Amino acid sequence: MCGEASLLDVAPIFLQTLQKHKVSLPDNRTTDMARVHMLFPLSLDAMRICKEMQGVYGHGCIPSFEDTIPSSSATVGPDGKANITHTLFMSTNFIMIGFAKYGILLNLLTLGYDTLFMDNDQVIFKNPVPSLYTLYKADLYGAQDTCRRLDTHDGVLAYPDRVTINIGVLFARATGPVTRCFMNWAFTMQDSAGTPVCWDQSKFHAAMTLCMKGLQYNHMSFGFLSSEAFTSLCAGVCGCDAAGLPRIVWRGGRGDKQYADNCPPRVMKKWAAFHVACFAGHADGGKVRHMKRVMEQYEKHVGPIGGLPEDKQPMPWWTSDPWWKNFTHAS
């Protein structure tokens, strides 16, 4: 999902990292992840900008949610500042974006498509899809805001205490129980509409906790992605290191400055994605700076993004159904 501001500052970097990951199509042609990635513009101006960017990245611009929020005539100047005052945290438009999120996911799940949803203020270092179909067996996965050793390949029996989910990364298999749980999420959001607590992420936590109690493990399993692999600025400037960097690092991106430009290679080697979350940095260009910072450090100390052999594996969720070709420039 994207408004004008994110399309003008963070989305280009996100798409650039997707371009570095080569993938095989069902007919054995090779393309890159950006050219088969779907963006959902949330305003009419966002749709216009999205289509203008297609010539560079080849992504898809999916219609149907472009009236979620009003256009803001957002611009990004040479100082990297973007106008996002109309989508500030817990503003009316911010809450409307949450309603659009579950609408988009339900649309795809009810059509029978497994769905990997990612916020676009992320840098993608490794193609996550092959592992989601090999290592990870649960029906539904989410990333974490917390930094801890919790990487549940087979899912969990109950929602763990003191684990904060981050729905900036969600992987959902198109099963009946998963769709039912997402509908519960929608109902929970609708029940709290107009209240100060109508936040999609907190309501997701509540809905999934209740859903897991009702369905039990034999019907649906929920898992947590590694907070070291799918890491974020919520854990600190170097993401999560459950092995134990000093605690001062884990302060939502404001950690010890000695690590800001010198993240340990052993930590970076684990990165599959770095999410610049817990940080309202559109307005001052901070999100873009953090994205560029982690890209530069990774390529300097680990190697080129998309250079691993596993990044060149065929993408297992594609079928002969060419629906996505209607919206992308895949070649």
From TrEMBL:
<dbReference type="InterPro" id="IPR052636">
    <property type="entry name" value="UDP-D-xylose:L-fucose_XylT"/>
</dbReference>
<dbReference type="GO" id="GO:0016757">
    <property type="term" value="F:glycosyltransferase activity"/>
</dbReference>
<dbReference type="GO" id="GO:0005794">
    <property type="term" value="C:Golgi apparatus"/>
</dbReference>
<dbReference type="Pfam" id="PF03407">
    <property type="entry name" value="Nucleotid_trans"/>
</dbReference>
<protein>
    <recommendedName>
        <fullName>Nucleotide-diphospho-sugar transferase domain-containing protein</fullName>
    </recommendedName>
</protein>
<feature type="domain" description="Nucleotide-diphospho-sugar transferase">
    <location>
        <begin position="86"/>
        <end position="235"/>
    </location>
</feature>
<dbReference type="InterPro" id="IPR005069">
    <property type="entry name" value="Nucl-diP-sugar_transferase"/>
</dbReference>
